[in-house]
Every structure is written in C-alpha cells, then in structure tokens.
Amino acid sequence: MQRAFDRGRQLLQETRGDRRTRTDEGFQRTERSLPRLTSAFDIPFAQNICSYFGAMNPLAAPIDPATECVWLFDATAYHPVHPYPHAQQPWQVDIRAAFFKKGTGKDVSKMVADIADKIGLSEGEGDEREQGEKTIAERLQPFVDVVAPGRWVQVKLPDGKTVKLGPGARSATIEQTVSTRGEHREGETVSIGAVKEGITPYGPMEMGFAEEEGWMVISDIDDTIKTTLTPSPTGILRTTFLLPATPIAAMPALYTHIHATLSQPTWFYLSASPYNLHPFLHPFIHSTYPAGPILLRDASWMDLSGFLAGLTQGTQAYKRNRMQRLHRMLPKRKVVCVGDSTQSDPEAYADIYRLFGAGWVRRIFIRKVTGIAGMDESKNAPERFEKAFEGVPKGVWTVFEDPAELYEAVDGLVKGY
Known about the structure:
Layout: H1 2-12, H2 16-24, H3 27-33, H4 45-50, E1 61-62, E2 68-72, E3 75-78, E4 91-101, H5 109-118, H6 127-144, E5 151-156, E6 162-165, E7 173-180, E8 189-192, E9 205-210, E10 215-220, H7 233-241, H8 251-261, E11 266-274, H9 278-288, E12 294-297, H10 304-312, H11 315-329, E13 334-340, H12 345-356, E14 361-367, H13 382-388, E15 397-400, H14 407-415
Parallel strand pairs: 1-5, 3-9, 10-11, 10-13, 11-12, 13-14, 14-15
Antiparallel strand pairs: 2-4, 3-4, 4-7, 5-6, 8-9
Helix pairs in contact: 3-10, 5-6, 8-14, 11-12
C-alpha cells in the first residue's frame, strides 16, 4: 500500500520534461527488465501490519545489537527562529536514521549477473568481469537488506543527554527533531553515536553547527559534482553500481574556492537518489568536497526500477520540498544554489527564489551538461533557461560549462557586485 502511494505521488509530480526524457531513452523498458528486490519487507506478518502505525507501533522495541543495525546520517544543528525574539534558542537538530536487520539480504548473484549484462560487462572479460561483479554486489547489498520498522535507538548528544530516536515507521526510517544545549561555534563538528556499541556499521553521525546568519550552499550531486549520466538508464546503472565515483572536472577546485571565499559556509548536498546509496556517496563527497549532510530520498520501499524512476521522475517537487525545509531551519542565511541541466534544477531553484526572494537565494549556478548519451539538447536551449527563470533577475542565475567561469561571480558575492 505504502509503495503504491509513494510511486503514485511521484508519478503525479512528474514534469513534461521528465516524461520526455524517460520516454525517449526507454527508462520504462529498462525498469521493467530489472530484477525485483522482494526482500525489503520480509518480516513477520504482525510486525509488517503494525509498521503502519509509525510512532504508535504497539510492537515497537529497542534495536537488538545481535540481529539489527542502524544508519545515522550526518546533520546540521541550528537555532530555531522564534517569532518574538528574546533569549537565543537552544540548538536543534533534525536527526535522520534507518534501521535494518543484519545479514538478511538475499543471494544477489542472479541480480548481479543481470545488472552486469545490462551495463555491458562482457562474460569474456575474465578477471575484469569477476571484479566488476564483486563491486556490483557490494553496492547492491544496501538495497536488499531487510528493513526493521518499529525499532528505536538511544544516542548521546554533546551535552551528555541521552535521547531515544524512533521507532521507525513503515520504511524503517525516522527524522526526529531534538534539542541540545552547550556552547558551540559556527562550523564546529561533533560525532554522535549510539549508546549501544556495534550497531552502526557506517560509524557515528557527524553533527555540524550553523548560526542563524552567514552563507549556505545547496548543491545537487548527480552530474553537478559527480558523473552519473542521468539521461541514460544504462549510464545510471553503470556509474552507480560499477564505476568508481568520479568528480566532474574542475568542480572540486571550484568548491574549495567557494568554501574559502564565503568563509566556510554551511553545505547541504541534495539528491533524488535513494538513501540506500549513502554508503557509496558519503566517502566520495567527504573526501572530494567540503563536508555537509547528504539529503537523499526516503526510498527503502524501492526496487531497482524505483531507483531509476526516483532519479528521473518528480525531482523538481522533491527538491523544492527539501529546500523549503532548509529555509525553515535557516531562514536568515544567504544561499548559493548549484545544479545542472540534466534534470529540473533550474526550475526547482527558480521556484525557491520566487517563493523566498533575493533575501535568501543570492546566486544560482547551473552547469550546462553536454557530450553525454541521451541528453535532450532542448534542456540546454536558452529558451529553457529563460522560461525556467522567469521572474528571477538575470544577475542572479548563471549557466556555465567550465567551472572557471564562476570564480569572478563567487568573488563578487563578498565584494558586493
């Protein structure tokens, strides 16, 4: 039921451009041919039914370290803005977590072989085929592990307070706002771990601190800072499950320049990829770009066809919604948005500018993606950008091909031009 609802909502949010790309490049045909991941809700009947009750789940229980684990996602703490200013509010942080059963993923060998064939990994490539299938299996595993709805975990905050996170709802994920006190500086980072040991396979979450005012960068990931080949279903599968994560040329240097010029702004990385890719994306981003939370779609309900649809369907509405939530957190920040032309980044960023005005969004940079298979060239047409940014001053948005084109614009943000 939940899966059908989520997919139906995503379909209703599909734009005309989404539909054209998906039709022209045969996304539906590829999605229908992908193996189904049927193990996500392979849990006892009573637990399955009670998972629909969310926080009121009568079978909710603490996580079992012997059989279950939890992923803790990085987050940024902020001071909530009070409608009647008085004493500064305590820090708040929106903590996200996902619960899984350990070692429950089904045998993925057939799925691995199927994906290997689809992305052109030939049987005759010997050691290369073997190594390729090993990589595919490792990256596929987070998609097949059984979720654990109705579980909760205790974590220890910087002020020493222990808080209960959960229980997880139907998708076994939670996003919970908690408060913490203490003196923390802008840009400071602390680690937050579970009270029980051995249940966080990807380590503790990193919690940064952001004061009410200052600069903030919202960056897309796929084909903005990382090669994903979003217009092509085969390209997505190949760059996601086989190839090493590869940065877009000259973007790491640009982001280093932005980070230094804007005096270490707060960063958020926003993608329509499912959170199952967090173990793949997190080390890449944090070793290549300024650190910041990675905001991914709550999509443990998805099979692989849903993964492709999530990256190419309804992304404008999804990103607009996430940015509205960021505005509620940090409405006094000065924001730089960075995206690309493969999806609906221009339209989503323009929506946010029209909604909150120049007081929040100061600049929008859109990478014009060229030279990749399946790219609809109408997405790079000047008319597309003029229409997308209707009502947005021309001095606010810039379309670029070479990141070096943006250095002067970035410098201008602090020099006032």
